[in-house]
Amino acid sequence: MSAAPGTSQRRLVIVTGMSGAGRTSCLKILEDQGFEAIDNLPIPLIERFARLEDGLERDLAIGLDSRTRAFAPNRLVALVDKLARTNPSVAVSLLFFDCDDEGLQQRYTETRRRHPLAADRPVQDGIAAERALLGPLKAAATLVIDTTLLSLPELKRLLTGHFATPDKTQGLVVSCVSFAYRRGLPREADLVFDVRFLRNPHYVPALEPLTGLDPAVQAHVESDPDFAAFEAHLEALLLPLLPRYQAEGKSYLTIAVGCTGGKHRSVFVTERLATALRAAGYEVSTLHRELAARAAERAASTRAGAGQKA
Question: Is pTM, for the whole model, over 0.85?
Answer without folding.
Answer: no
